[in-house]
Amino acid sequence: MQDIYDWIDAHAGEAIADLQEMVRQPSISAQKVGLEECCDLVLRQMKRDGLDAHKHALDGGPPIIVGHMTTPRSTKTMLCYSHYDVQPPEPIEAWSHGGPWSAAIVDGVLYGRGATDNKSGVLAFNKAAKAFMAVRGELPVNLKFIIEGEEEIGSLHLGPWVEKNKHLLEADGMHCLDGSVDTSTLLPDIDLGLKSVLFVELIARGAKSDVHSLNFPLLPSPAWDIVRALNTIMDENRRILIEGWYEGLYELDADDEQELLDKAARVNLQDMRDEWGIKEFALGRDGVEAIRARTYEPTANIQGLVAGYTGPGMKTIVPNEARVKLDFRLIPNIQPDKAIARLKAHLVKHGFGHLEVQYRMNAEPPYKISVRESMAQAVIAAATKVYGEVPIVNGVSAEGTILRHVWIPCVLTGFANPGANLHAPDENISIDSYIKGIKYAAAIMDEFGKTG
Fold first, then answer.
1. 17 burial class (0-12, 13-18, 19+ CB within 10 angstroms)?
2. Closest residue by Cα to residue 242 from 340, 341, 343
3. Which residues are registered as beta bridge partners of 144?
4. Hey, what CATH topology would domain 2-194+367-450 get?
């Protein structure tokens, strides 16, 4: 692989310039900003690199890019999944170095929304494929590409397209380059599964408008309704109280237990606490217990809640509406459709049937693959060669929409530096991490090609 790595190093300037160009193009799926423009930019870049790329329209959503490149060197086909959309950049005032779209490089670090999540991942696939074509004239494995524009809001419109176009995505393995390396070991995390994410909003309504708070004794109180409803969902020990929530929960096998023990022996959890700025983990967890909880525990997180007046000073009102946004992480075998039904039944049982429950019913199902799968083994071998040490293997992580319609063993991994600030102000990626990530993508292609 040294010839490939040398080519990547020699063309690092091109890879950096393309990433800056992509980061400077806003593409916020939650706000429907710049998506078509960013898709066209990615398409131009891929064609400029000599890669097969075609734009496909989605009914109601931003377009996707699909490509297919073949080789006689391998019978295996690998699907490279990535996304060009990004999280909203707010609060804008918290950004340094020229703001979220500057793509400024300061002390060897490129700043901007999407620098890590996931525009560097898009380009790692593309530049790795280009390196093989430039140096050897052929790929080490058959490649398919899919690059979408709604991952950050749950891939709302991707599913129906996939169902109609399964043949375009069928492959022997799939992986995604999204995220950072382990904080303490600086090695890639290898995630062999998916926690499904169920997004829910609860809405309580009262009077037709805000009313003077002297009338509180006579009025419904949406804010208190929300607070009391939330208190029935999870207890102080983080256990979800919804009846049947843990039914059929995934049971860890010997491989899973060994992964937990290996990770506990190799990672320094204090580095994680330092990065987050906390003294201890919730419930005093540490060691294997902390890793087990983060990997395999279902969650009920409050993203945000709002009611009434929150500005300076006071305003004596009874708010007429209160809202809370939650995300539930569902591990295998908690199915999204059953989970939402159980949540609704729980609210009715506890006297909150009047709350409006909004949710997205296209949540991807959770899944888990074995460490013995060829896709998993290829990624582990590639990480070991590029980073010089066996990587950190996790049982379950945080791409599942595709897998609802086309089952492909799927692995999630990443290469960004610690402190990359995914989903936060000053998102960044170090140039060294980015270039190494392209080599990582190339090594994964090479290793998976050897399996068939």
1. exposed
2. 343
3. 68, 79
4. Aminopeptidase (3.40.630)
Phi, psi angles (nearest 5°) of residue 142: -70, 135
The two tokens of residue 194 are 């998916």
CATH of domain 196-249+298-359: 3.30.70.360
pLDDT (tens digit, 9 = 90+) per residue, 329-363?
Answer: 888 778 888 999 999 999 999 999 999 999 876 66
Q: How far apart are CA 71 and CA 137, in angstroms?
A: 10
DSSP state at residue 28: B
pLDDT at 398: 41
- Domain borders along the chain are 2-194+367-450, 196-249+298-359
Asked whether 435 and 9 are in contact (CB, 8 A), the reply is yes
- Positions in the chain whose pLDDT score sits under 50: 397-398
pLDDT of res. 400: 59
Q: Find the helix or strand (DSSP H, E) in which 84 lies.
A: none
**Which residues does residue 423 pair with via DSSP β-bridges, in sequence order?**
none
Q: What's the rounded Cα separation, in Å, for the pair 125 and 187?
A: 19
pLDDT of residue 397: 46
Burial 278-300 (b: 16+ CB within 10 A, else e): eeebeeebeeeebbbebbbbbbb
Inter-CA distances, 354 with 202, 227, 359, Å: 10, 14, 16
Q: Measuring CA to CA, which residue among 371, 379, 391, 409 is closest to residue 258?
A: 371
Tokens 């959309």 label which residue?
A: 85
First to last CA, the chain: 18
Query: How far is it, in rounded angstroms, from Cα 136 to Cα 71?
Result: 11
| Alpha carbons 357 and 327: distance in angstroms, whole number | 13
DSSP state of 118: T
Alpha-carbon radius of gyration of the chain: 23
